[in-house]
Specification:
The complex is a heterodimer of chains A (184) and B (107).
Chain A lengths: L11 E3 L3 E4 L4 E6 L5 H9 L10 E3 L5 E6 L2 E6 L4 H11 L6 E4 L4 E7 L3 H6 L15 E5 L2 E9 L2 E7 L3 H11 L8
Antiparallel strand pairs in A: 1-2, 2-8, 3-6, 3-7, 4-5, 5-6, 8-11, 9-10, 10-11
Helix pairs in contact in A: 1-2
Chain B lengths: L2 E3 L6 E3 L4 E5 L11 H9 L7 E7 L7 E7 L5 E6 L7 H10 L8
Antiparallel strand pairs in B: 1-2, 3-4, 4-5, 5-6
Classes of the chains: A alpha+beta (184), B alpha+beta (107).
InterPro entries (chain A): SoxG (IPR007375), TrmE/GcvT-like (IPR027266)
Pfam family, one (chain A): SoxG
Organism (chain A): Rhodobacter viridis
Chain lengths: 184, 107
């Protein structure tokens, strides 16, 4: 087997906040009727919960389910588990009008941590971070590319974007988090 | 800066997260229509000074299309509503009529 490598191999920069490429992460796109009982059962079978609109909820084994749009969810799990979780979801939804795809290798995940982590993203995203609650999934843009952001811990934000733009996102995060660039 | 609330995901976003889709509530004239009808459908667009109904797509968010009513002069947003409608909701029309008494209607 070839070794799985993340987009930037865990590159990290320390400024007034620490920005890190979070390494390989299992991500699965699920498109289905989110109101259907079958969807809820399929998620429960993998230890996942169904999030409400714009929520990200924790399930078992450190897995998360994020709400991406009225018919789309993003499942986040361990990289090694992703193929099995995707297969499990696809199996239980095979009679439904649904799509399950393992997108782990098509995405990159970053963490921005520190007491002033919000300010790194305030400069890049048209989002009022003062009103971004814990457990809220916010899809937006980071400078010129699409991204999804949520609070993944105290003083820590996570950002996912397409792998093809990982270098660009690391660049803007690094510049935005440089020492002396704090907003307040 | 134009700020709209996406009715699909409920988040209030500003213009740069959205993609404009032009005038809303167009009636399509396809095969079988007259040349004049097709030309009107294809090219003629309202350009009002005042109330305008528009299509927008929440491009950087949930990716869904929705419709919005706003004033092209003051940029006041009267409301947004799902795209799965053939005409603006009655309460939105009432609200606009209250705010713009001289408004000639959406058609």
């Amino acid at each position: 087997m070839s070794e799985a490598v993340s987009a930037l191999k865990g590159e990290s920069h320390v400024g007034f906040a620490t920005v890190t490429e979070a390494g390989v992460t299992g991500m699965i796109t699920l498109r289905a009727d989110l109101a259907a009982t079958a969807t809820r059962i399929a998620l429960a079978g993998q230890g996942l919960k169904l999030p409400g609109a714009r929520e990200i909820v924790a399930g078992d084994k450190g897995r998360f389910t994020g709400w991406m749009s009225p018919d789309e969810l993003l499942v986040i799990c361990a990289y090694e588990d992703a193929p099995a979780v995707a297969a499990g979801l696809a199996k239980s939804l095979h009679l439904e009008h649904a799509l399950v795809t393992n997108v782990s290798d098509a995405r990159a995940r970053f963490t921005i941590s520190g007491a002033k982590a919000d300010q790194v993203l305030t400069k890049l995203c048209p989002v009022d971070f003062a009103t971004l609650k814990a457990g809220e999934m916010r899809r937006t843009r980071a400078a010129q590319v699409a991204a999804a952001i949520w609070r993944s811990g105290p003083e820590e934000l996570s950002l996912v974007c397409f792998r093809s733009v990982a270098g660009y996102v690391m660049g803007i995060l690094e510049v935005s988090s440089r020492q002396g660039g704090e907003l307040f | 800066m134009l700020t709209l609330t996406c009715p699909c995901c409920g988040v209030t976003v500003e213009e740069t997260e959205l993609a404009p889709g032009g005038e809303a509530h167009l009636k399509r004239f396809g095969p079988g229509s007259t040349d004049a009808e097709f030309e009107t459908y294809m090219f003629a667009r309202k350009n009002p000074k005042g109330v305008h109904f528009e299509r927008w797509r929440h491009a950087y968010g949930c990716g869904k299309w929705f419709l919005a009513a706003r004033c092209t002069v003051s940029w006041e947003v009267f409301g947004t509503y799902p795209a799965q409608t053939t005409e603006p909701p009655a309460e939105l029309i009432a609200k606009i009529k209250e705010k713009r008494p001289g408004w000639e209607g959406w058609k």
